[in-house]
Amino acid sequence: MTGHLERGEAKSAARADWLARFDLLLFVIAGLSHRYGLIGTPDFFWVLALIGSLAGLSLLMAAIAFRRLWLHGDRGGKLATRATFVAVLVAAPFFVSGVLVLRYPALNDVSTDLDDPPQFEVLARQRGAAMNPIDAITVDEAESQIAAYPHVTGRRYEAAPDTVLEAAVSIITARGWKIVAQSEVSAETNEVAIELVARSLIFGFVSDAVIRITDESETTYVDMRSVSRYGVHDLGENARRITSFLAGLDGEIAIRAGR
Q1: Which DSSP letter does residue 9 get?
Q2: What is the CA radius of gyration of the chain?
Q3: Predicted pLDDT of residue 118
Q4: How confident is residue 258, by pLDDT bands cut at 50, 70 and 90?
Q5: How far apart are CA 201 and CA 178, in angstroms?
Q6: Element of type H or E holding 18
Q7: Alpha-carbon distance 20 to 11, whole Å?
Q8: pLDDT tens digits for 148-159?
Q9: Cα separation of 221 and 207, whole Å?
Q10: How confident is the model over 216-234, as pLDDT tens digits?
Q11: In the list 74, 160, 205, 238, which could disulfide-bond 8, CB 3.0-4.6 Å?
Q12: Mapping DSSP to helix (H, G, I), strand (E, B) and coil, where does residue 226 land?
């Protein structure tokens, strides 16, 4: 009479699978809730910390399950594999954010003009106590920006200020940014400023931006400044927003000039 060894069940595999799938659901719900303004950014940061911790825990439990599979031949390989895949999927944005933190300086205020940055008249007053204040750009911040984003510079166009203003508003509207205020043309500086609110593409993190259009008689100069409302590090978002807008403005001005 022959017998057989019954394989055990790696309980950590089922637990890892359940936790990873729960974490993914939490991530999706929290991300959509923040994107559509159902939860505030400070609360969302705490939820993200929890989500990241749960992803790490599910990966740990999956590793324990794989160890039991290897050493004792327990069942649960499919669950442990699925848990690993889902947990890695959830952890991927955290990994990318970590890479961006190491790649870019800790800035949340980026401007094409560091000596005389465009000023906020309306949006600065609307910032709450928990938000980043809109202050003067320090020398250290300016040096960090120049080193990391040397391409973040203003644009000079051989076009009338009205044409540039219309093109700028067209791009702002197309990108779904919200114009909050537009100043009257200053007789002293020949400038007009557009203050707007912009959100990041996926999670909807909010930044305030201001576009300054200066009439130089024969040419028109455009500067832009973008400031995150929360967080000490923007992960390069503000610089990308400025360069993307100005690249779009280049194309729009060229189209309007018939080139």
Answers
A1: B
A2: 25
A3: 95
A4: confident
A5: 14
A6: helix 11-35
A7: 14
A8: 999 999 999 999
A9: 23
A10: 989 999 999 999 999 999 9
A11: 74
A12: strand
Q: Side chain identity at 20, as an amino acid letter?
A: A
User: Helix, strand or coil for residue 163?
Assistant: helix
Q: Which residue in this structure is represented by tokens 């990994």? A: 95
Return the ∠ at Cα 50 (arms to 46 and 52), rounded to 5°. 115
Q: DSSP assignment of 123-139, as one string?
A: HHHH--TTSPP--PPPH
Helix (H) or strand (E) holding 172: helix 161-174
Reference 55, options 98, 14, 26, 12; nearest CA is 26
19-61: pLDDT as tens digits: 999 999 999 999 999 999 899 999 999 999 999 999 999 999 8
C-alpha distances out from residue 65 to 68, 89, 154, 235, Å: 5, 19, 56, 35
* Cα–chain center distance at 151: 19
Q: What angle do CA 164, 167, 169 make, to 5 degrees?
A: 110
Residues 226, 207: Cα–Cα separation, whole Å? 6
Identity of residue 48: L
Spatial distance between the Cα atoms of 86 and 235, rounded to a whole number of angstroms: 24
Q: What angle separates helix 77-103 from helix 11-35, to the nearest 10 degrees? A: 40
**Helix-strand-coil percent breakdown of the chain, rounded to 5?**
50, 15, 35
